[in-house]
Structure prediction request, 273 residues.
Amino acid sequence: MDDRQRRAWAALGIGPAWLLRDPSARAEADGVASGEAEATPTSGPLSEPTTEPISEPISEPISESPMVIARSPGPGVRRDTAIAGLSWPALSEAVSGCRACGLCEGRRNTVFGTGPNPARWMLVGEAPGQQEDLSGEPFVGAAGQLLDQMLRAIGVDRAGETFIANVLKCRPPGNRDPRPEEVACCEPYLLRQVELLQPRLIVVMGRFAAQSLLRTDATVGSLRGRVHAWRAGDREVPLVVTYHPAYLLRNLPDKAKAWADLRLARRTFDALG
Ligand code: SF4
Prediction:
């Protein structure tokens, strides 16, 4: 290990003891905020890009008022089709006024996401927590600080080149798991964000975000360690799955796997030229 790697490991809080551990000797946990155990062992070595499930194509633009779309797109117009036609300001306004699912009842703020537009990197988490709900920004507090360290460790500038968003824009009460109908209701906003931001690479953090974007029930453990191809409109974007920082705060051993995932993301991004 050279000095740069040692500094990166130190930034992630991974001690030298990790070099001596055999990852196959223990079961792997899933990367979700709830800390649910995972029975499936880690997949093989970091590998070549694959063609994994692709998101649905995003539809033709139409002109709609954002507040109308937040409630009802009008007769004959599907809500997801209406969202797929919004400009960035209209999308932001639509989210801030959205009352399309029950999560609007308990929120203090919607959390649209932060970062440059367009963005070279896009990070996608699950849902706002208490501090995010209060601040209106994603990944603040301890999980956000860990995420900042992880990004710095692979040479990524969070503020300058990374847009960070969640699948859900409103906080589930008590930080409970998102419900499928809530994910389905909110997901069109994320899909439109990806299409407008045109990221070169997407990093997905945690089970719900990975399952939502990849249209799968598979665990983080079985999805991480490889590059997925994800379609946004007519573009194919490399996508890497890793653990959620909030999960890593409670499951320190899996930081080593998250570090491997981020190195894979960095290598993949650099290979894009
Ligand atoms: S979680 Fe999403 S769909 Fe539900 S109210 Fe908030 S913004 Fe709307």
Q: What stands out?
A: Residues 27-34+49-54+110-271 form a domain with the Uracil-DNA Glycosylase, subunit E fold (CATH 3.40.470.10). The longest strand covers residues 235-242.
